[in-house]
Design goal:
Length: about 240
C-alpha cells in the first residue's frame, strides 16, 4: 500500500508540474501564431479512409487549439481534453460554441469504459518520466473503440532541446527522460524521449495505418529543426 501511495503522489506531482508548465506557456501565447502540424492532414485522411469522418473522437492534450480547430473543421467532432485551464480558456475565447466539448483534466476524468472511434494525442504522451509516459499511452489505448484509430506524436531521442535541461534518467532501451530547468518563471518539467523500438512495442497489439515516421520539421519555418518526434496512426483490431 505504501508503494502505491508513493506512486500516486509522484503521479499527482508530475501532473501538477505539467499543468503549471503549460499554464505558463499558454499565458505567453505559445503556439498562438503557428500553423497546425502537417500531421493533422494525415489524421484526417486516415479517418476518412476508415469511414470515421465525419464522426466523433477525443483529442488528449488539446492545448490552446492550434491543431484542434483544423481537425474539427475537417469533420471530427472532438472532445478536447487538457490539464491546462489557460489553454482551454484560449479555445473558449476563440470559439465559445465549443465550450461543451472541452474538458479540464486527464483521462481519469472520463466515465469508466468510455471509448472513441478516433483518439488523438499530439506532443502530450511524453510528459513525465518513462513510467508515467508509458502509463499515459496505455491508458489512451484503452479508450480507442474497436476498429478505431489511435494517432500519436511524441518526442524522439536525438532531439536537441532548445531550453536548459538535464538528463534525469537513461534507460536500457536507449530512451531518455530529461528535466527542463526553471527559466523566466517557467516551472520545471520532466519529458521523456522515445526510441522507435520502445514505442512500437507499446503499440504492438494495434495495426499500423501510418507506421511510425520521424519528423523534425520546424513548424515556424517549415524546414528541418532540432526537435525530433515520432508520429503514426494505428488501428485497434475490430
Amino acid at each position: 500500500m505504501k508503494h502505491n501511495e508513493n506512486d500516486k503522489a509522484l503521479e499527482d506531482r508530475q501532473r501538477q508540474m505539467a499543468a503549471a508548465f503549460w499554464d505558463h506557456e499558454y499565458a505567453q501565447d505559445r503556439f498562438a501564431d503557428l500553423p497546425p502540424d502537417p500531421f493533422v492532414t494525415d489524421i484526417l485522411g486516415a479517418a476518412w479512409a476508415h469511414g470515421l469522418l465525419p464522426g466523433p473522437g477525443i483529442y488528449i492534450g488539446v492545448g490552446n487549439g492550434r491543431n484542434y480547430f483544423p481537425l474539427v473543421e475537417g469533420g471530427l467532432d472532438l472532445v478536447g481534453l487538457d490539464i491546462s485551464t489557460v489553454g482551454l480558456a484560449a479555445i473558449r475565447k476563440r470559439a465559445p460554441g465549443h465550450y461543451a466539448r472541452l474538458v479540464h483534466g486527464d483521462l481519469s476524468v472520463l466515465p469508466a469504459g468510455e471509448t472513441f472511434p478516433v483518439v488523438i494525442g499530439l506532443n502530450v504522451f511524453h510528459h513525465g518520466d518513462r513510467d508515467t509516459a508509458y502509463a499515459h499511452i496505455r491508458a489512451a489505448l484503452e479508450v480507442v473503440a474497436p476498429g478505431g484509430l489511435f494517432c500519436i506524436r511524441v518526442n524522439a531521442v536525438g532531439t536537441t532541446p532548445g531550453r536548459p535541461s538535464e538528463v534525469a534518467a537513461e534507460y536500457d532501451d536507449g530512451s531518455v527522460t530529461r528535466r527542463y530547468l526553471p527559466e523566466d518563471g517557467m516551472p520545471p518539467l520532466l519529458s521523456h524521449f522515445f526510441t522507435s523500438a520502445a514505442l512500437t512495442g507499446l503499440l504492438a497489439a494495434y495495426e499500423p495505418v501510418l507506421p511510425l515516421t520521424l519528423d523534425d520539421t520546424d513548424i515556424a519555418t517549415g524546414r528541418p529543426g532540432d526537435w525530433r518526434r515520432w508520429q503514426g496512426v494505428y488501428r485497434r483490431p475490430a
